[in-house]
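User: Can you predict the 3D structure for this chain?
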Amino acid sequence: MTRRALVHGVTECGTRSPTRAGLSGNADPARSTGRQVVAARKRRVPGSKRTRGFTLIEVLAALFLVALVLPAAMRGVSLATVAASETQRRAEAAALTYDKLNDLIATGGWSSEAPEGDFGEDHPAYTWRLTVDDWQGITVKQVMVRVFWESRGVERSLAMATLVYSGEG
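Assistant: Here is the predicted structure, written as structure tokens:
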């Protein structure tokens, strides 16, 4: 197309530019205006319908899916939270049991100390109990420390044991 300036029309991007007469569908250059191009742009082509939002059925389907998935997801989150809390308490009990057993063995308190107690203000939810039993003879003892705590209304416990030479016999 050559650029002969006979009539000014509106291009697709909305700026005025020279066009040839007759291209806009009007053979009369005096009557050719940009309004015809704009009107042609507003016409809908069959099969190319533009949508601006969701239909009612799409919204209802999405709400139905959310209603099905959300309770299951929240139940999963709740179970994961409970499991994490239980794991944290069990790990803390294991650390307390290990420390108490090592303390009793290192200080020799397993043979003279009171057989139960608590962990003071640092860990008020936990208590411990010591048991000493003979193990295959008189000179070897099994020293076991069991730590107790309550979780969700149920008493839980964790035990660790070791063998100690008692020197008797």
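Residues 56-165 form one domain. Confidence is low (pLDDT under 50) at residues 1-7.
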